[in-house]
Backbone:
């Protein structure tokens, strides 16, 4: 057998209801058929080899019967010279070799198909996850999702192999054996085999269906335990800050205990299934051998017939026994595939319009016109916000925490669709252009920088994959981080750790700045870009950011007002509304909200 934290104004957004899990059954198998059919000729040739192998396999006991009958000679019979059995012996050996030959040829043809289908579905699921909206990713649990994909991919490979290597061969062999029993002997032999087969299948299906919910419970607890472990490890520093190791261990063990109980129930029910299957098979084999023995005693059957019945029963027993095992594995594989296909079925909240065109950036002018937005309809965030960022100019948006400043950046990237109004670049509504071309034209330095667990060079070069070391170093120098990188033992090959935890907040921020400078897009967003830097580095990088923004359209989201005094225009946002706008001197002269915030910051206070 071959089974093989930015200043986002909203509370955690409410996402769409998750797709319901499909009922456990063979629907996942049907969903795989279009993928398999792409290699239909390989599959068809594999099926031909499958039938040939089973014909050869069933032919073995027939030749064995002829051998036994040929050897059933009386003393002195001249045929005792074994002239006749030589051909049968050669045929017996040829059939044995043919079984192996066609079986291995079938595997050679089909195994690459199963591997490619598993890879393709896993990749399609990953691509779909990357295409889903930010709302989904804010709600998902990374550990559970990664485990669902891993288990689902493995289940696809196993499921296809089970069908080609076990289910279909078993069904072909059972059919051939029953036909042989019915034609060579009497109807009782075929009847007993058919009744036993029916009882076996009904019993296996019934008990396996009963066992399925134990497997689902195991998967659920496995995913939850994995999610909790990954969350704790990712947030290692927070766990240590609050001395909560025992708390996290308790939460993890809680799921492990539930997993333990579910696995014990699953194993106990498996013993019940195995015992019942063995009883059915033992009873059927006993009855068939008993009838064959009576036939030999009565002279209706030869000794070779008794050997044939016994050999056929062994060949019927073995695939039947494996059929139960494989059926259980297939049911478990369909359970494993449930959540993977549920992920694949998640609705794409943000999708390109059917007639979407690539964004054409001529000058890069941004325009927010009467923009309204809410993560949750019951709590609007932006109320008819209107302002422009002229081509090649820098406009800053300031305001207290929760005013909706960072939401503007997310809407510009089209992580969400607006509820009213429009956002356009050079007169092109963001909803009418492709998301890929839109995001290629924008670069952002976020407030909360998360890096990949790779080298410094990889993280900077992520801004433009394929960039050479010289270009990476130039971007690092512009972000004032080259000296630090060069001072480390591994230089640009230094690993930054999970989420960049090996770097300080300021170092991570400078890597993010270098990454965006390397991308060199026509439109820039600085979302509290220097919030993690000390005053000296902030002043140095502000100069570099100002230089990088020369000739580009820049939207600066800021909390420190001192960083935006040179902006072409400053937009003051409060409770999702534009309350003031103008240059720094103009807003100070107004003596309004901006002037009060400026005075508070100059005195060392905070206006949030």
Residues:
């Amino acid at each position: 057998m071959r089974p093989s934290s930015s200043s986002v104004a909203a509370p955690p957004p409410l996402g769409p209801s998750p797709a319901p899990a499909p009922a456990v059954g063979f629907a996942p198998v049907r969903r795989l058929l279009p993928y398999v059919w792409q290699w239909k000729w390989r599959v068809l040739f594999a099926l031909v080899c499958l039938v040939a192998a089973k014909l050869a396999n069933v032919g073995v006991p027939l030749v064995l019967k002829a051998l036994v009958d040929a050897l059933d000679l009386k003393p002195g019979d001249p045929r005792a010279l074994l002239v006749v059995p030589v051909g049968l012996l050669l045929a017996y050996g040829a059939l044995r070799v043919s079984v192996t030959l066609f079986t291995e040829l079938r595997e050679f043809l089909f195994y690459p198909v199963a591997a490619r289908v598993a890879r393709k579905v896993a990749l399609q699921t990953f691509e779909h996850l990357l295409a889903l909206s930010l709302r989904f990713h804010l709600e998902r649990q990374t550990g559970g999702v990664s485990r669902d994909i891993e288990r689902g991919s493995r289940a696809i490979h196993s499921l296809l192999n089970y069908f080609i290597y076990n289910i279909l061969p078993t069904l072909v062999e059972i059919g051939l054996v029953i036909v042989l029993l019915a034609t060579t002997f009497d109807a009782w032999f075929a009847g007993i085999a058919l009744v036993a087969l029916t009882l076996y299948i009904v019993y296996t299906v019934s008990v396996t269906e009963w066992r399925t919910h134990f497997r689902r419970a195991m998967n659920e607890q496995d995913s939850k335990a994995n999610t909790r472990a990954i969350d704790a490890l990712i947030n290692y520093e927070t766990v240590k800050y609050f001395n909560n190791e025992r708390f996290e261990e308790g939460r993890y063990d809680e799921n492990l205990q539930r997993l333990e109980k579910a696995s014990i129930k699953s194993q106990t029910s498996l013993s019940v299934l195995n015992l019942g299957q063995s009883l059915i098979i033992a009873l059927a084999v006993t009855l068939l051998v008993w009838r064959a023995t009576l036939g030999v005693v009565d002279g209706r059957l030869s000794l070779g017939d008794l050997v044939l019945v016994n050999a056929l029963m062994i060949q019927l027993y073995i695939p039947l026994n494996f059929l139960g095992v494989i059926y259980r594995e297939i049911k478990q594989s369909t359970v494993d595939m449930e959540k993977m296909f549920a992920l694949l079925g998640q609705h794409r909240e943000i999708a390109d319009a059917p007639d979407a065109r690539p964004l054409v950036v001529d000058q890069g002018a941004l325009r927010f016109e009467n923009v309204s937005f809410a993560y949750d309809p019951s709590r609007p965030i932006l109320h008819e916000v209107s302002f422009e960022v002229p081509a090649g100019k820098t406009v800053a948006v300031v305001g207290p925490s929760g005013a909706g400043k960072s939401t503007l950046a997310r809407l510009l990237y089209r992580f969400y669709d607006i509820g009213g109004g429009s956002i356009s670049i050079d007169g092109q509504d963001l909803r009418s252009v492709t998301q890929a071309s839109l995001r290629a034209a924008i670069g952002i330095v976020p407030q909360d920088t998360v890096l990949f667990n790779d080298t410094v060079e990889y993280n900077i070069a992520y801004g433009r994959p394929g960039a050479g070391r010289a270009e990476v170093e130039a971007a690092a120098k512009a972000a004032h981080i080259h000296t630090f990188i060069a001072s480390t033992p591994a230089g640009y090959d230094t690993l930054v750790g999970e989420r960049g935890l090996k770097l300080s907040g300021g170092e991570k921020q400078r890597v993010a700045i270098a990454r965006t400078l390397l991308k060199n897009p026509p439109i820039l967003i600085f979302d509290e870009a220097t919030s993690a830097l000390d005053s000296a580095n902030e002043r140095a990088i502000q100069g570099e950011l100002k230089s990088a923004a020369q000739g580009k359209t820049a939207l600066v989201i800021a909390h420190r007002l001192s960083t935006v005094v040179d902006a072409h225009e400053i937009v003051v946002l409060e409770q999702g509304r534009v309350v003031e706008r103008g240059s720094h001197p103009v807003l100070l002269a107004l003596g309004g909200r901006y002037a009060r915030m400026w005075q508070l910051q100059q005195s060392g206070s905070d206006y949030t």
User: Anything to note?
Assistant: The first helix runs from residue 27 to 37. The chain has three domains: 27-344, 352-441+521-608, 452-518. Confidence is low (pLDDT under 50) at residues 1-24.
